[in-house]
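Hello Y.,

Per our agreement to keep a running log of every chain we model this quarter, I'm adding this entry. I've kept the format consistent with earlier entries: sequence first, then predicted structure.
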Amino acid sequence: MRIAHVSDSHLTNPEGVATSVGTTVALLRAAGHRVVLHCPGPLSESRRRPGEVPSLPVPTRPYRLALPRPPAAPIDVVHVHTTGPLGVAGLRWAAARGVPTVLTWHTDLVAYAAHYPEIPIGAAYAGLRLGLHWRGRDLWALARPGPGRQARLAALGRCLLAHTGVLIAPSTKTATMMAAMAGRTPIVVLPTPVAAPHADADDRRRLRARLGIPADAPVLLAVGRATPEKNPELLLAAFAQVRRELPEARLLLLGARQHRLAIRRVAHRYGVAGALHLLRPVPRERVGAHYRAADVLAFTSTTDTQGLMLSEAEAHGLPVAMVDTLLAQRPGTGTTRPVAEPTGLAFGTLLTRLLTERKLRATVAHEGQAAVTAWSAPRYLTELTSLYAKLHPPSPRS
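Predicted structure for the entry above:
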């Protein structure tokens, strides 16, 4: 099958959309499908891979802005992953040619709009390109927090889905969130699987030694941005609660590129700055060492649509604790991860239990690994290609 994947997130970006897209494209290619990934690439044509389009880096942001270019080769299915300029162009191109379209909803745009001004700007662009006849008052409403912005974002969601044959939700939480916008567009829950752990140069002992962490110290790990939508203040409040019971405990916050000074100020306010290791993003092949160096993954975000790091941690045998009850169900087995109320006291108490109660920690880790095994890459690929085939039934010429 000939499939065009379209993403405004370039594959070297250390975030969930890029990881999900890269995983999906690699699995399809390994299975023999003809896949072209349309995503931002270098300005120099000699450095771009097939499908990449010229792009420029966005100041203070870890992504690139690309100018849309339509696919040149014949396509059976267009799979769009983002709603930026490239994603919108993919939807319009497919609609104009009658090519079936799949849209994966990776990002909670309503939640992110409160933290990223480019979300309302991008929404205005997408709405105008897709035929929403927004006027000045609509654009003004998009620019301001409140019910007016949410109503316009919901209208954009309905418009996007009207251009879509099937909506893929990476979790039941996301499917529920999108149900009101979907109309007649069917929703399929299809989480992205995670790769099996692989060995690298760093093991638990080496990484701890390099960071100056005693071999027997309890270690919490948080992976991802330290930006406000990920709720780092709750993480630090809970860590302070853990330290009251376990004064030797340490916290690794991996992936903090922005807001580092603000995080350190909050850590000082809670009295945990000396036990915090604020680490910048590392290449994906080095993330596994951090999972192995920790004892529990602490997840305080309530804005994620899947949270790939949850399954990544579980693949490494690391128990997960979280506060998002809507995302607690694991893909594959239907078991649930431990959840606490989103307060420093409640979440800190849960983290302390997982750090100190060996039987509980072992049970949670075992259930996590079982779920990762159950939701395998072959199972995901089978369901995804079956979905494509329903949209574009095979013919003798395809």
